[in-house]
Amino acid sequence: MIHNGKRPYQCRECGMSFTRTSHLIPHQNILTGEMPYKHAECRKGFHQSFQLNIHQMIHNGKRPYQCRECGMSFSTCSHLLCHRMIQTRKWPYECPACGKSLSMSSHLSRHQWNHQ
Questions:
Q1: From which residue to which does any coiled coil extend (predicted)?
Q2: What residues contact 48, with CB distance under 8 A and at least 6 apart?
Q3: pTM score, two decimals?
Q4: Nearest 10 degrees: CA dihedral of 71, 72, 74, 80?
């Protein structure tokens, strides 16, 4: 069903269509503010199950992502990547006009106004 281009599952809130109900339901949870996935210990709620899984690592102390340079460990890959960018000062967003690198796309957009 994914490859035929059809998106039969439509959001009642905004009209956006999806190929699977498993994609529609989290989308609707975000729009309605519903957070059906709750952490048993702290009762923090999440829109999607993967968000709860990541959050649980905070409570169980698992930090499977380790920096090769300094040995620090992180609960998520994205936290390790941010750490590495800070260490190396290599930011992913580069200004085409002057070559300056920035850490966030919004910072690049704001920076580019300086060239106008």
A1: none
A2: 26, 29, 37
A3: 0.54
A4: -80
